[in-house]
Write a structure and sequence with these properties.
single chain; alpha/beta; Trna Endonuclease, Chain: A, domain 1; 2 domains; five-stranded mixed β-sheet; 6 helices; membrane; hydrolase; nuclease; transmembrane
Length: 212
């Protein structure tokens, strides 16, 4: 029976070709075009799925790295006025955190490290504002440039949700860096201001930003 049916379909097709060769050609072209379009859609769909999977994996890895690297490291006791030139960069961060604690901040944490996205010290000021500090332990000849400020400015408010963003250095700032900081509302503390903050003759960095 199957052979008879197939034979009948073949005869019908042959008859259609003889009677309407133009229509058969059109139908054949449409069929080929539909097949090509289907293959393209399947290829695009597979590519989109692979891209979405890659983005999900990258986002997951970034979130894991941020969660891991921003865990506050164990604090070590550092003298508030240790003579900054004798410190390591890590000890300098601890010294800045000690200054924050001395001046009434709560929740002081040193979170600097790989993947810190610009935050070295975070704290809550006595008036309840979140302060995020980046520490640059530089020699006198190495000033903080605009790229340093731009990297910090890209994360301090949007990522770390700072009410007050501060960049503290043992050195100084270039003019473009100071201009960028002023435009973005970042408090710059150079070596001279750091010494004034340390000995109590100058203001705390967050006092430069009035409460909103």
């Amino acid at each position: 029976m199957l052979i008879s049916v197939l034979g009948w379909v073949a005869r019908m097709a042959a008859g259609a070709v003889e009677r309407r060769p133009g229509w058969v050609s059109v139908l054949a072209v449409i069929g080929v075009a539909a097949l090509v379009g289907l293959r393209r859609r399947l290829h695009v769909a597979r590519t989109a799925r692979r891209a979405a999977a890659a983005l999900d994996e990258a986002a997951r890895e970034a979130a894991e790295e941020l969660d891991t690297d921003l865990i506050p490291r164990q604090r070590t006791a550092v003298e508030v006025d240790p003579g900054y030139e004798s410190l390591t960069p890590e000890e300098f961060e601890e010294a800045v955190a000690a200054l924050c604690e001395r001046d009434g901040c709560s929740g002081v944490e040193v979170v600097g490290g790989t993947g810190d996205l610009g935050a070295d010290v975070v704290a809550v000021t006595p008036d309840g504002r979140r302060v995020v500090i980046q520490c640059k332990y530089y020699g006198e000849a190495n000033r903080v440039g605009s790229q340093d400020l731009q990297r910090f400015g890209g994360t301090c408010f949007t990522v770390h949700e700072a009410d007050v963003a501060v960049l503290v250095t043992t050195s100084d700032f270039t003019a473009p860096a100071a201009e960028y900081a002023d435009q973005c509302g970042i408090v710059c503390v150079d070596g001279e201001k750091l010494r004034s903050w340390t000995d109590g003759s100058g203001p705390c960095p967050w006092e430069a930003v009035p409460e909103s």
